[in-house]
Amino acid sequence: MLLKNIFAAALAGGLMFAAGAASGQTVGPSGETATPSVDVALTDADIGALKGKGYKAALLWHTSSDFTNAVSAGAKDEFARAGVEIAVTTDAGFDAARQRSDIETALAAKPNVILALPLDPVTSAEAFRQAVTDGAKLVFLSNLPSGYKHGTDYASIVTDDLFQMGKQAADALAKSIGGKGKVGYIFHDATYYVTNQRDQAFKSTIEKDYPDIKIVAEQGISDPARAEELASAMLLQNQDLDGIYVTWAEPADGVLSALRASGNKTTKVVTLDLAEPVALDMVKGGNVTALVADKAYELGRAMAAAGLKSLLGQPTPAFVVAPAITVTKDNVAQGWKDSLNRDAPQSVLDAAK
């Protein structure tokens, strides 16, 4: 998931990311076992039971972006299959108070299913309470309101396969440096459910699966604007780094600036999520060797399917994950479509030719 689309951490995220890294799989906010999104699917009988009932859905998003557009597209296509009308679509602009207002507006349309990313666990718990009281089926993207219980207050949480994103990043970096060498590890220095699991999965995979690769430099980052400064210091102290992992694409752009400033064309970089600047470097044969992303369209499809199954009175898994994909120069065009349900930026496509 594009990191700028995650605003609030799930409760106990620090505990859960460690558990995920130890178990080799993504786990939910309360340690729930992950169910693959492919297992959350509507049957023909389900579709028949839903059509013609006048059901309505609301998509209450936290912001507007390529990511949320792709999640919306997946949800809308799944709702359309079931004959469910999208009654309300909102964009809270990362404002928890505005999200609360959006919820009140949406409830006036009496939606049967609501898909949303709660911006703040505490504020969201209050804001969505009326929706629970009204009997709407809630499906959350990545975050969970404080105190909400599965099966009572919400149908499912759906997110990325966070462990696989970190693992695939480790595998890609290892491949690019021939399975041996020294690497730097730039992680997100905050308690964020999504980034913590992804970062720890990278680190644990390197330590477990690649004995000839050593993480010789670690640097936490909370402000992406400081990425170039922090990377420059890391490179000054470790001039022989074979590779660097960066927690997501925005700070990775700063790391690239530091590499260019030092004339370093050999240190390989792997990061998470898709963005034009790092993708351009990758397809032009620069330092970036791979980008690992989620399947955002599939996130939306699974969210809609979980909400509709709950509407039918069927049991739904508490925690659902969509697949991760590794995007390289060779598959950048298809990878962008698979992840974001849109073409890659023209600059990237032109440079990849």
UniProtKB/TrEMBL annotation:
SUPFAM superfamilies attached to this UniProt entry: Periplasmic binding protein-like I
Q: Which Gene3D superfamilies does the record associate with it?
A: 3.40.50.2300
Signal sequence segment: 1-21
Which CDD domains does the annotation name? Answer: PBP1_ABC_sugar_binding-like (cd06316)
Keyword annotations for this protein? Signal
Is Signal a UniProt keyword of this protein?
yes
Q: Which residues form the Periplasmic binding protein domain?
A: 60-313
Q: Where in the cell is it found?
A: Cell envelope
| InterPro entries linked to this entry | Peripla_BP_I, SBP_2_dom
Which family does the entry's similarity section mention?
Belongs to the bacterial solute-binding protein 2 family.
What is this protein's name?
Answer: Substrate-binding domain-containing protein
Its source organism is Aminobacter carboxidus
